[in-house]
Design a protein that fits this description.
Length: 506
């Protein structure tokens, strides 16, 4: 230090001080001296590397990238520097630049295991599954027991629905690493999906043998039992984990869920309420609390829970949706609309908030606002099938702009051909345009797709009535009534009218 005080403009002394500070992990201070050294001796290779490494260690990835690029301009064959650069580029999601560097690394060293693995990870992130598989397989040719490559290859096979290949990858992994509980959990879920019951039961016993009650590895069993409806076993496993790991919010959330499904709402509430604001499970926990309170007829408590959570989360979108739905279920449409409008102040282009708002405008018979809201959705997402359908159906129902309605609904049908509701809209616009045979054809298809919708039944009744098929018309109107049509009086009136026609006919 004395020497540096006497000669502060010595690149060598600044470099040495930086190295000393780096060894004691005082990275920020080390960087200050390293940068001074570089300023004094900008062509010193070792100083350039020191500065780059310290930028990386202090989390300044942007400057680290620039510095490593500078070094590679001087020394393009430096494998260590190129690998470090590739690693940072991956961390910063600059995948294409990372791939360029990895390809260069593998040209220089075709046996670089980590290069193939990193390349596989990037391609997996990019959804280039063929290239990802090739890269992982290359890595496994060099080291057939590479744990992360086997695990990520299994992930790839699951994403691409090659479940048998995924099973083989995870089975191979646990041959080498029998205590990898994550792989065992995935393997167990695959056995269940493929209905391999014996293997699934054996895997459950294997997981138990490689873990003790209360260990994190047993979480997989708790969640599996929950999915299978084995609630007592799920509660037993998750309770032990939560007792040993009280800050494990994932286990606590699903423990509360198991209690809720079992009907023990008090214990469910206890655990949901224990989940803190900073947890990623907090929002869903608040929604569950609200749902329990509402089921207990504590409507005010349910509302206050969601309002409080909205304040704490500074306007989370899911909470606005839930609060609006709660108001809507209780027929308080004005407050539901007010809630969604407030949500849109925080999330002005959120499609879910906009769509629910449009639906509420429709329910309150504000057709103009409904259409305007759905049109805003289409400005954001032109291929939103439900918004296209909503506008088209609203026009058709009002008997206006039928050509535009037809165009909108046909576009929606192309996007979602198996939607009974959209098919119903197409039938209804044909009906409004006077093409009754086409209307009947599409409405019958809608009824096949969605057999228990009262509006579709009403529409079929209307078409048959227009075609003077009164007996068939009566059948569909009665079905609409039995399905609890929201406009009961209107359906009863239509039934009465049809019955009069049938009496005259007799």
């Amino acid at each position: 230090m004395k020497a540096l005080e006497n000669d502060p403009d010595s690149a060598y002394l600044n470099q040495k001080m930086s190295l000393l500070l780096r060894r004691s992990k005082q990275y920020s201070n080390a960087l200050t001296y390293a940068c001074k050294a570089e300023e004094l001796d900008p062509d010193n290779y070792d100083i350039l590397v020191l500065v780059a490494d310290l930028f990386s260690l202090t989390g300044n990835n942007e400057k680290a990238i620039i510095q490593y690029d500078k070094i590679l301009n001087v020394d393009p064959d430096n494998l260590r520097i190129r690998l470090l650069l590739s690693t940072i580029l991956i961390r910063e999601n600059e995948y294409q630049k990372a791939l360029v560097n990895l390809d260069r690394l593998l040209e220089q060293n075709p046996e670089m295991l980590i290069g193939y693995y990193y390349r596989g990870r990037i391609y997996l992130e990019l959804g280039s599954y063929k290239e990802a598989e090739e890269s992982f397989q290359k890595a496994l040719q060099i080291n057939h027991a590479l744990e992360p490559a086997l695990f990520d290859l299994g992930t790839l096979y699951q994403i691409t629905k090659r479940y048998q290949d995924a099973v083989r990858s995870y089975e191979k992994l646990i041959e080498f690493y029998p205590d990898n509980i994550n792989a065992r959990e995935r393997l167990l879920n695959l056995y269940i999906r493929l209905d391999l019951k014996n293997k699934a039961e054996k895997q459950i016993e294997e997981i138990k043998s490689y873990s003790k009650p209360g260990e994190h590895g047993r979480q997989a069993l708790g969640l599996l039992y929950l999915r299978q409806g084995r609630l007592d076993e799920s509660i037993e496993e998750l309770n032990l984990i939560v007792s040993a790991w009280p800050n494990d919010d994932r286990s606590r959330y699903y423990l509360a869920t198991a209690y809720k499904e079992k009907g023990d709402n008090e214990k469910a509430l206890e655990h949901f309420k224990h989940i803190k604001l900073e947890s990623k499970y907090f929002i869903n926990a608040q929604i569950q609390i609200s749902d329990i309170l509402d089921a207990k007829n504590d409507y005010d408590g349910a509302i206050e829970t969601l309002k409080d959570a909205i304040i704490k989360t500074q306007g989370n979108q899911k909470l606005f949706l839930m609060l609006a739905s709660l108001y809507e279920m209780n027929k308080d449409y004005a407050k539901a609309i007010e809630t969604l409008k407030e949500g849109l102040k925080h999330h002005d282009s959120d499609i879910e908030l906009l769509f629910q708002l449009g639906v509420l405008f429709d329910k309150t018979d504000d057709k103009a606002s409904c259409i305007k809201t759905m049109q805003k959705i289409l400005q954001i997402k032109p291929d939103h099938a439900e918004a296209l359908n909503y506008i088209g159906y609203t026009y058709a129902d009002q008997g206006i702009k039928l050509d535009e309605a037809m165009e909108l609904i046909q576009k929606a049908v192309k996007l979602k051909p198996e939607s009974g509701y959209i098919m119903d809209s197409l039938g209804w616009v044909y009906y409004r345009k006077g093409f009754f045979e086409k209307a009947l054809l599409h409405l019958e298809r809608a009824a096949e797709l969605t057999p228990d919708d009262p509006t579709i039944s009403e529409h079929l009744g209307d078409v048959h009535f227009t075609k003077k098929n009164y007996a068939k018309s009566l059948e569909y109107y009665k079905k609409a009534l039995s399905l609890q049509h929201p406009h009961e009086d209107r359906i009863k009136k239509k039934i009465s009218e049809v019955e009069q026609y049938l009496e005259k006919k007799e």
